[in-house]
From TrEMBL:
This is Polysaccharide deacetylase family protein. It comes from Amycolatopsis albidoflavus. Residues 30-283 form the NodB homology domain.
């Protein structure tokens, strides 16, 4: 990896990103019925406003990867994210897991998504396939539908270019997901794996180690938070603490995901084309 990132030549690039909104993932998982009443999900009415206020206080423009279903069901929330100066990325239509989806299912997800992008007038540049894995599907599928970078799980601390489409692939390791610190069952994703949640202090410690490794490798990394899981003031405050620490770290270029992708694209000699292979979490 190149050792200089951003206008000040930092050792690494870091993006703080958010996933999920509304009932989309719950409908996909079957925990609520597809025809259940929607429109008042706590992630929209409570967590999202608190996060937007916190990010404004800490002067950071983040990336929110949102299921496109929300463009139709929570258009005001999607607009609020964009109007606050944050990037809106794509996280599937209804959080369908790409690595377990057929080509026809992926095509339908993209068709529905493109329709609502036009309706709302907000067009995501970046894609994060739900569950972070492409499975048998190519990065080229996303390029053909107008996306110009992809956020992928399983490739730690580097940034490569996709094969035919040459889309920047912005990585995150599994232990850079907040559930590894907060949610029972996900804690085995930590390094080293754990059995119990460790809370915001443990998350900050784990993310600090990830940033150290990323800086040593001269790469980039996405740090992931799920909007519905930021359901207490201490969790929201921890993100503010993280942003402040990253902004003050001379090794780090703290940027949005699209800004990092543009840097990769504008410096092709530093990022040779490399094929990507999904790597599922070690459960």
């Amino acid at each position: 990896m190149a050792g200089e990132w951003g206008p000040d030549g930092a050792d690494c690039a870091v993006a703080v990103t958010f996933d999920h909104l509304g009932e989309a993932a719950e409908i996909q998982l079957g925990s609520i019925a597809p025809d259940a009443p929607v429109g008042h999900h706590h992630s929209v009415t409570r967590e999202l406003p608190a996060l937007l206020a916190m990010l404004d206080e800490h002067s950071y423009s983040a990336t929110f990867f949102v299921e496109a279903w929300n463009f139709r069901n929570y258009p005001d929330a999607v607009r609020a994210i964009a109007e606050a100066g944050h990037e809106v990325g794509w996280h599937g239509w209804l959080h369908e897991p790409w690595h377990r989806s057929s080509a026809a299912e992926i095509a339908e997800s993209l068709r529905l998504s493109l329709d609502v992008f036009g309706e709302l007038g907000v067009r995501p540049r970046g894609a994060r396939p739900p569950a972070g894995l492409l499975g048998p599907h190519s990065v080229d599928v996303l390029a053909e539908h107008g996306f110009d970078y992809v956020s992928i799980a399983g490739t730690a601390f580097g940034t490569t270019l996709g094969s035919a489409a040459r889309l920047p692939l912005l990585p995150y390791p599994w232990h850079a997901v907040d559930g590894a610190y907060y949610v029972p069952g996900f804690t085995r994703l930590r390094q080293p794996p754990g059995e119990e949640p460790v809370g915001p202090a443990g998350l900050l410690e784990g993310y600090a180690a990830i940033v150290d490794d990323t800086a040593a490798a001269g790469g980039c990394v996405g740090l992931i938070f799920h909007v519905p899981w930021q359901d207490s003031p201490d969790r929201v405050a921890a993100i503010g603490t993280l942003v402040d620490r990253l902004a003050a770290d001379e090794r780090v270029w703290l940027a949005r995901a699209d800004e990092i992708a543009d840097w990769v694209r504008d410096h092709p000699a530093d990022f040779p084309e490399t094929a990507h292979t999904d790597r599922a979490p070690a459960w």
